[in-house]
TrEMBL record:
It comes from the Bacteria. Belongs to the small heat shock protein (HSP20) family. Residues 35-147 form the SHSP domain. It comes from Sphingobacterium wenxiniae. InterPro entries: A-crystallin/Hsp20_dom, HSP20-like_chaperone, Small_HSP. This is HSP20 family protein. Pfam families: HSP20.
């Protein structure tokens, strides 16, 4: 594969109107427009320990009662549907990005999961799910002596 270096934006390749390219570059690269074109779902961290799987979901500005967590066979689904209230305010915003109305994240669970040992907590804007493993799937650690 060959890497090709393109000219940087410092070179003006538009001789007719030098401001046209910079206007469209700024417009489409603006986070206000770019964020509207991308579906918003919270970021997730998944970690595995010897006895559990830990799922951390970043969802600030919500309450514990906003979350709905369902387990169906080997699929766990975390969803939020928050109805946005229309409050008339006297503020004039030049940019407004606060709106987490709804999202759904689903994760496949392995066969080693103990479905009776799933807990959830929400603190400081992070939802933490702890999914326990079955006893027979927990590998016993021991030291093997070389003879």
């Amino acid at each position: 594969m060959a890497l090709i270096k393109f000219p940087t934006k410092t070179l003006n390749t538009d001789g007719v109107n030098p401001y046209v390219n910079s206007f469209f570059d700024n417009f489409f690269n603006d986070s206000f427009v770019g964020d509207r074109l991308v579906t918003r779902v919270p970021a997730v961290n998944i970690a595995e320990t010897d006895k559990t799987f830990n799922i951390e979901l970043a969802a600030p500005g919500l309450q514990k009662s906003d979350f709905k967590i369902n387990v169906d066979k080997n699929l766990i689904t975390i969803s939020v549907e928050k109805k946005e209230e229309n409050n008339v305010e006297e503020k004039l915003y030049s940019k407004r990005e606060f709106s987490y109305t709804s999202f759904t994240r689903s994760f496949s669970l392995p066969d080693t999961v103990d479905y009776s040992n799933i807990t959830a907590s929400y603190e400081d804007g992070v939802l933490v799910l702890t999914v326990g493993k079955k006893e027979e799937s927990i590998v016993a650690k021991r030291l093997i002596e070389v003879k």
